[in-house]
Design a protein that fits this description.
The chain is mainly alpha-helical. It is 82% helix and 0% strand. The chain has a single domain, classed as Up-down Bundle (Growth Hormone, Chain: A), CATH 1.20.1250.
Amino acid sequence: MILQRLKHFSQKQKDVIKTISLGNLLEWYDIYSYGFQADIIAEKFFGFFPSHYSLISAFALFGIGSIIRPISSTFLFGRLADHNKSKTTGPIAWLSRLFGFGRQPVFLFTIALTTLATVATGCLPTYESWGWRATALIIILRVLTSIGLSGEYTGAMCYLYENSYPSNARFVTSWTGVGNQVGGVVGILETLMVMLLASTRFEHSYGWRLSFWMGGFLGVVIFLFRTRLSETPLFEAIEEKDKFDQETSLQIIRRNSKKIFLGIGYGVINASTYYFLALYLPMFLIKELGVGEVSSLLCLLFLLTTTTILIPWFGRFGDKFSNRMLLISSVTIIITLLLPAYYAIIEKNILLIAIIGFIYLFPVSCITALLGFYLPNLFSTNERFTCVGCCWNIADAVVGGLTPTILLALQLFMSLPSAICFFILLTGLISAGCYTKIRG
């Protein structure tokens, strides 16, 4: 049914949807692969700490990389994607000579940087052979990876939004989230293959490297696909009329501060719940409930496959029904389920956790589907990439990226595995308040 709906779109729209949705998979492939390899990364690069501290360090490294993302997306990629070369000077102008201005050149640069950093991570010597230099190198490479990834989802949202029509905008932009889910599925399948087909010794010696090398291969394929993309119609229109914003990125952020705070509020519930499902839940199932790694991954594979199917459906619903009603209802369901979720975590009730996790897929998929429209819709074309990058990366990268580290620390040092419920409650209340501002 969803694929049949695509038949009514223009050929350019269909090509853009396919290229963006499949080309956006590397970000969440990286997130899931890193999450699944956290134990091994902790052992290989933070082995000088006790086991609990080394695992927290591995997740903290993920969080540190996330903190840099709003900065790079706003002040680097925002300038390149939103501004014409005649209006930009300094280091950004120098970079523009190498990669160009506009949505498409930035999209190529982000995937190239991410790919190179990912492959290099898989080639790193470990702490055992290189000492602190290996630890320093993986920190640097994770920061570079995060810089590249900071423009990925932002670019996908802007690309799809600027290639949509008012009649199908929610459906078209919902495919931004589909690519991420596909990336997660690929990451899980790759991890399962290593676990099932290779020995534990191989997994700890070279298996973890394969995940990063596989990410590099995917990056090369995605880069080749993106070379076929043309610039978006809306960007071409302002380029033709030379209507580029001449303000600095900081001035743009200050002028749009209210909208940016609103956009951050739109995304925080999505970030906290998704990172909970992606990184924290598998670790909780294995460490606290004694679920086998393979069983945990198969469960997560089912969850991600389901969301991949649900997201475009909710995008379609968004073109037909009240978006305000859909979003507020979704947050209400999430918050309502927190009490039984709290009980399930405290009592370590696997069946109840599984049921709640499955129900969560529906409201979370709905929010993910509609965010791809509402964040770009807040801003005009000549400042869209800058502001959307700031909103998305603060909500998703900082709030979501730090979630596993905070929750793991609370669990290990304060015996509070249920802290996730209070965290989701806080983000849910923030998002619900922001969704009330939506009209229609």
